[in-house]
Design brief:
The protein has 162 residues and is mostly beta strands. It has 2 domains: 44 residues, no CATH class; 104 residues, OB fold (Dihydrolipoamide Acetyltransferase, E2P) (Beta Barrel), CATH 2.40.50. It is 13% helix and 33% strand. The protein has 1 helix and 11 strands. Strand 7 and strand 8 form a beta hairpin. The longest helix has 21 residues.
């Protein structure tokens, strides 16, 4: 009976790989919830444009609970796409952005702060892993474009550094 389940799993994974390839998808996430009613949640994503990843995510064992929004980002300019601005730090992954290490703690950076290359700007939780997003260069934080606890997609602008 174990062989039948293993074959079913292989067939399922093969079908998902084919789905990725034929639909130009960049990501598939499958989560199964066991219980009274088994539930299978499937999420698919496609990278709409090729964006240079400006930060390499680093796994950090920081325990962070979902926090209410405490920081207020500056309003993005209506005339320009923030992701295309010079100094834009874009999200290297899909997840939830947090501006501080834990609820109630000071934000990693604030508008007007001067940061050094490699300094943590924020963290993105992806699949229960906290990923520090470092500054790709030294500079001054001129805009914060995400709210604490907000979901972000790959390529979303997070912060503007000048």
């Amino acid at each position: 009976m174990g062989d039948k389940k293993e074959n079913t799993d292989v067939d399922f994974i093969t079908a998902l790989a084919e789905l990725l390839r034929t639909n130009d998808l960049t990501e598939i996430e499958v989560m199964r919830e066991f219980g009274k009613d088994d539930v299978l949640n499937v999420r698919v994503a496609r990278q709409m444009q090729a964006a240079a990843v400006v930060a390499t995510p680093v796994a950090a064992p920081i325990a962070v609970a979902a926090a209410p929004a405490t920081a207020t980002p500056t309003a993005p300019a209506a005339s320009a796409d923030p992701a295309q601005l010079a100094g834009a730090v874009n999200s290297p992954m899909v997840g939830t952005a947090y501006l501080s290490a834990e609820p109630g703690a000071d934000a990693f950076v604030k508008v007007g702060d001067t940061v050094k290359e490699g300094q943590t700007l924020l963290i993105i939780e992806a699949m229960k892993t906290m990923n520090q997003i470092p500054a790709p260069k030294s500079g001054k934080v001129t805009r914060i474009l995400v709210d604490d606890g907000a979901p972000v997609e790959f390529g979303d602008p997070l912060i503007i550094l000048e």
